[in-house]
Amino acid sequence: MNYLYKQQNKLSNKFILPNCIMQLDLSTTALAIYFYLIYIEDRKTYQCYPSYKTIGKALNIKSVNTVSKYVKELEDKCLIYTEPTEIILKDGTKRNGNLKYTIRPIQDAVEYYHQKQMKRAEQETALKKAQRSIDEYNTRNPKASA
């Protein structure tokens, strides 16, 4: 029994990501931020509350604007969801708190990525079809293309 408990404890200090994360066209900085958020998340709620400054300090990123840019990239790729929080000071005034980060299921990001790829392929196909039609028209009507 003690052996199983030790094994569970060892596993609770690790996180495993599926290989597909490497296929989502993420920048290296966005990947580092994603890994950091998973590292600090609450494993039951999939949430964490670090400030941009805290993330930057942990990953040696000098600018909070840079952190913000890559957090936005993670949101755009459907890997995380963020929402603002508020804190109430002792005197009762409300202030903006850190963002609340929720780590989304990786499958959401994979499905979104594939949908974007399909849409891009459909657009390219439509563009090639339109170009062929233009080329055929110009071939049949050489005066019109001049």
Topology (elements, then pairings):
Blueprint lengths: L1 H11 L15 H13 L6 E2 L3 H8 L4 H13 L3 E4 L2 E3 L5 E3 L3 E4 L2 H35 L6
Antiparallel strand pairs: 1-5, 2-5, 3-4
Helix pairs in contact: 2-4, 3-4
Report on this model:
The chain has 146 residues and is mainly alpha-helical. It has two domains: 103 residues, Winged helix-like DNA-binding domain superfamily/Winged helix DNA-binding domain (Arc Repressor Mutant, subunit A, Orthogonal Bundle), CATH 1.10.10.10; 41 residues. It is built from five helices and five strands; from the N terminus they run ααβααββββα. The chain has a three-stranded antiparallel sheet. The chain has a two-stranded antiparallel ribbon with strand order 3-4. α2 packs across α4.
The coarse overall form would be elongated
Task: Give me the Rg, rounded.
Answer: 24 Å
**What is the CATH third-level topology name of the largest domain?**
Arc Repressor Mutant, subunit A
CATH class membership of the largest domain = Mainly Alpha
User: What is the CATH architecture assignment of the largest domain?
Assistant: Orthogonal Bundle
Estimate percent helicity.
40-55%
Structural class: mainly alpha
Strand order of the largest sheet: 1-5-2
- How much β-strand is present in the residues? 5-15%
Number of individual domains? 2
Discrete helix count: 5
Low-confidence stretches: 1-10
CATH homologous superfamily of the largest domain - what is it?
A: Winged helix-like DNA-binding domain superfamily/Winged helix DNA-binding domain
Number of strands: 5
- Mean pLDDT across the residues is 86
- From the N-terminal CA to the C-terminal CA, the straight-line distance is 85 Å
Helix and strand pattern? HHEHHEEEEH
Largest sheet: 3 strands, antiparallel
